[in-house]
Amino acid sequence: MKIKKGDEVKVIAGKDKGKTGKVLKAFHDMDKVVVEGVFQVKRHIKNKMTGVGEIVEKTMPIHVSNVMFIDPKDKKPTRIGYTTDTKGKKTRITQKSKTVVK
Fold this sequence. Notes:
The protein is mainly β. The protein has a domain at 8-75: SH3 type barrels (Roll). The chain has strands at residues 8-11, 20-27, 32-35, 40-45, 54-59, 62-63, 67-70, 77-78, 80-84, 90-94, 100-101. The chain is elongated and about 60 Å long.
């Protein structure tokens, strides 16, 4: 999975298509990511002994195939690739502008 925590992504499919946000969490085993402000659902919390029940909004994971990385150079969605430098270190680069991604 080429999307990592802290990356800026754009949603390309689903009910939140067109929204952008930062990746808060990445689940590599499930190929899903949690993006801030995307795929918000309401969950009902049961009444506890001391408090009352409530309805909270929660951000749910979205599949990584439904998001694209945003190129920091031109702010447009692009794919991520890998390249190796002369020392053999593997780094991520954007496919459009060939800039190195940290």
